[in-house]
Amino acid sequence: MDGTAVDLDRPLRLYPLTYLEEGEEVTVGRADIDSYGLFPADGAALLRRLEAGDSPNQAARWYQEHYGETVDMLEFLEVLEEFELLVPEGEQVAEAPVIRWRRLADAVFSWPAWCLYAAVTIAGVVVMIADSHVTPQYQNIFFTTSSLVALTAGNVLGQLPWILLHEGAHALGGRRLGLNSTLTIGRRFYYLVFLTSLDGLVAVPRRKRYLPMLAGMGVDVVVVCGLSLAAAPLVGHGGATGFTGRLLLAMAFGALLRLAWQFYFFLRTDLYFLAVTVLGCNDLQTVSRQMLQNRIRALLGRHDTMVDPETWTPRDRSVARWYMWLMVGGYTLLTVLAFTVMLPAAIRITELAVHKLVRDTSFLNVTDVCVFLVLNFGELALAGYLAVRGWRRRRTDPGSTGAAAPASV
After folding, report:
1. Is 0.90 surpassed by the pTM of this model?
2. Distance CA 369, CA 363 (A)
3. Residue 45 burial (CB count, 10 A)
4. Nearest to 58 by CA among 11, 97, 22
């Protein structure tokens, strides 16, 4: 324990801990800093003895009497230190932080609110069925031809409020359960994404995890229906007749695309975390990747660099045997799409910008073209930067996986 002598006959101080028993394993951790570990049932029982006031030696004797085996308490205490469960000597334990926005979360997920969401969704679906011009379709993204910047800003920046609403729904779903949350920017292959981290979900019963996980997709459904419903009065027999109506339909189509994107489960989307929860896995993506790497390293004869399969949970190992091939297929598909769809589209966009620039070299037109190119390629550039930064971090810290937190949605 960092070279510090430990008095095994004196009780230790532990932070307030949470316990979640699932089968033969128990998730134990601190909700105040979102630090959690997966303990076997006997390890969690031993920890409870320490928490109840037993000294390490007393807890070790109890363990031997109860389970008929000895336990290395120094090694066990090192594990507790690693997860920051032990209170350092002389440190005061702070009170549990107040979870902000909890009342708002209760209101957002109250029965009156659910009735409102259902009414908007049903009304939107009815309107889309009645008038095909209100149904989101790819033509909607061309809501203006007067300015390339206005066109791109409407389709890219116009999604920001709905993206924040999506992530806010995840956060409020967690805060309703008393969990902290953080919003960060991350990368999924060549996509730039916003991530709401809800690490505390691992200490919540599985049946309570579904709402925080699916809240974002629920928002997307309501947004698509709500925008289409709002555009309906502005649509004539030939389609949207005003700028506002066309912009609303453009944003509705963008929200629908983001909803469809969730089915790329291998990119750790909301549906991935839903599947992991339903299947009873812990960190399926990481185990699948490591299992695939082990197979490749075995073929190359690099057995010394293989990950020990004993570090995986039995359930993760069982599911990963078939999930890793779905993951490989998904990444292969995205790679093919990058060369057959995204690259030609990028070339076409660049050609449009260059032709527009050749026809008009005025300051306003040059500015319009430059901003247009930044908005179109800025996301890929930032995703590339995050990829390089993650690669450098893994080189300097080999123990880092570079993966997102298991409960980032």
Report:
1. no
2. 10
3. 16
4. 11
CA triple 373-379-380, angle to 5 deg:
90
Nearest CA to 403 among 297, 306, 285, 290?
285
Q: Residues 254-307: pLDDT tens digits?
A: 899 889 888 888 888 899 999 998 998 888 999 999 999 999 999 988 888 888
Interaxial angle between packed helices 210-231 and 243-261, expressed in degrees from 0 to 180 and rounded to the nearest 10: 160
Side-chain-side CA neighbours of 72 within 13 Å: the count stands at 5
- Give dist(CA 375, CA 371) in Å, integer: 6
User: 201 and 405 in contact (C-beta within 8 Å)?
Assistant: no
The string of pLDDT tens digits covering residues 59-99 is: 999 999 988 889 899 999 999 988 888 888 777 766 666 67
Handedness of CA 369, 372, 377, 379 (dihedral sign): positive
Task: Reply yes or no on whether the pLDDT at 405 is more than 50.
Answer: no
Are 14 and 85 contacting, i.e. CB atoms less than 8 angstroms apart?
yes
Quickly list H helices, 144-242.
148-155, 160-175, 210-231
